[in-house]
Write a structure and sequence with these properties.
The structure holds 2 protein chains of 2 kinds. Chain A contains 10 helices and 9 strands. Chain A is an alpha/beta fold. Chain A has 2 domains: 135 residues, Rossmann fold (3-Layer(aba) Sandwich); 155 residues, 3-Layer(aba) Sandwich (Rossmann fold), CATH 3.40.50. In chain A, the strands form 2 sheets. In chain A, strands 7-6-5-8-9 form a 5-stranded parallel sheet, with helices on one face. In chain A, helix 7 links the parallel strand 6 and strand 7. The longest helix of chain A has 20 residues. The mean pLDDT of chain A is 94. Chain B has 2 domains: 79 residues, Alpha-Beta Plaits, CATH 3.30.70.140; 37 residues, no CATH class. Chain B is mainly beta. At the A-B interface, helix 4 and helix 7 of A face strand 8 of B.
């Protein structure tokens, strides 16, 4: 039963619940007008303590397409956080006005604090470099739609795996499906955090490999998940210069990739996927964005318990 | 050797790592209790060379679970009529609250007022506790 629950990290959802959300998203994609009034009279509060374009607008579009209303703020500067108000106090206030909350916060664990103090569902819309479970729902819906399954494939995850919250949530979520092999492509200093390696990959005896260069393994992948590597994350200039081209996907690197590999990216991208790749039939990142809105519609409906 | 009166009824917390007794005194909030407490520092120990001991008079109902997190080698004797009536074996608690603070500067606990600092045991063999908010492992130093 999802009604009234919060979504803070992917493991908050059982596989059955996850499947329910993905199936409802599929139904919404098939027949969106049937859901146009599903959330009539309900209010979503978007509490974004740091900038976001697509996640906030995706949540807002999702609620508006369900016939609901939205309110909120899009930076900490325009909230009482500037006056020093705690997350706990803010959420107790907002819970008096809204039916459901989507929260992004630069501090890791802030949405969990909100969920602990709230009597309405809280959705983590990204907390620092920690988790981003609704991006993962978009990712899973995209993979399920394009590959027809959520098991038996090799996924390459490339870029900043240390601070990339979308990566952490995706690994957690996929760790529950059978026969997934992870190839983790990053510079040594940006490898997945110790808690992902120890608590997920090692504890669950998952097949994974950590490598430095995308071009060495691209031919093995069924799914390639690109993320942005920022220059300032490197510990030294020499490593950045040595490795930066390894994390840029272009047509020449794609020559070795499988014909049916799909290319994903949580967006925004800067230069890690060349624009020339956009026309490649394997590019799935804009479709992934669209999946994001539909899956958020499904999630909001389930957490509010509306039909 | 320094002599401290034996406890007639109470607790003897033994085999505390030398130098840690005051830390445990604080964790158990002994400063707020009315009972007699003796702290023995650097007592001779066959096993460890030296150790600390805390003797608590007239109080046997205390939440001692936290000591398992601080030092699982500690032993606790419950005394009645000057006799050991029970030995308490410490185990690692599954959760600890407000005993340790997360050191991750990106964690919400670094800024949120009056938050409960909470860690969960995730690996009993390696004694790994993780912050429930950010997942970072607790490190003593």
């Amino acid at each position: 039963m999802l009604k009234g629950k919060s979504l803070i990290e992917p493991m908050d959802l059982s596989l059955e619940e996850l499947n329910e959300i993905l199936c409802l998203a599929d139904e919404i994609i098939e027949n969106p007008t049937a859901y146009a009034d599903a959330c009539k009279g309900k209010i979503l509060a978007t509490l974004f303590y740091e900038p976001s374009t697509r996640t906030r607008l995706s949540f807002e579009a999702a609620m508006l397409r369900l016939g609901g209303n939205v309110m909120g703020f899009s930076s900490a500067d325009t909230s009482s956080a500037t006056k020093g108000e705690s997350v706990a106090d803010t959420i107790r206030t907002i819970a008096c006005y809204a039916d459901i909350v989507a929260m992004r916060h630069p501090k890791e664990g802030a949405p969990l604090v909100a969920a602990m103090k709230s009597n309405i569902p809280v959705i983590n819309a990204g907390d620092g470099g920690h988790q981003h479970p609704t991006q993962t729902l978009s990712d899973l819906l995209t993979i399920k739609t394009l590959k027809g399954k959520l098991n038996d494939f090799t996924i390459g995850i490339c870029g900043d795996l240390k601070f990339g919250r979308t990566v952490h949530s995706l690994i957690k979520a996929l760790s529950r499906y059978e026969n997934i092999k992870f190839i983790l492509i990053s510079p040594e200093e940006l490898r997945v955090p110790e808690y992902i390696r120890e608590e997920i990959l090692i504890k669950k005896a998952i097949d994974y490999l950590e490598v430095e260069r995308l071009e060495d393994i691209i031919q093995e992948l069924d799914v390639l998940y690109m993320t942005r590597v920022q220059k300032e994350r490197f510990f030294n200039e020499a490593d950045y210069i040595r490795l930066k081209d390894s994390y840029i996907l272009d047509s020449s690197k794609l020559e070795k990739a499988k014909e049916d590999m799909i290319i994903m990216h949580p967006l925004p991208r800067v230069n890690e996927i060349s624009v020339e790749v956009d026309n490649d039939p394997r590019a799935a990142y804009f479709r992934q964005t669209k999946c994001g809105m539909y899956v958020r519609m499904a999630l909001i409906m389930k957490l509010l318990g509306v039909e | 050797m320094l002599n401290i009166d034996s406890v007639e009824k109470g607790l003897v917390i033994d085999h505390i790592q030398a130098g840690k007794a005051m830390e445990i005194y604080q964790y158990l909030n002994l400063d707020k209790m009315d009972c007699s407490v003796a702290i023995i520092k650097n007592a001779k120990s066959k096993k460890y060379g030296k150790k600390d001991i805390i003797k608590i008079e007239n109080n046997i109902h205390m939440d001692l679970e936290v000591l398992g997190f601080i030092d699982p080698n500690i032993t606790i004797n419950v005394i009645d009529n000057s006799e050991i009536i029970r030995k308490i074996n410490l185990e690692l608690p599954s959760e600890i609250e407000n005993i340790a603070k997360c050191k991750n500067p990106r964690c919400i606990t670094s800024i949120e007022q009056e938050i409960v600092h909470k860690f969960r045991l995730t690996d009993i063999n390696n004694k790994v506790y993780r912050c429930v908010y950010c997942d970072m492992a607790y490190e003593e130093n």
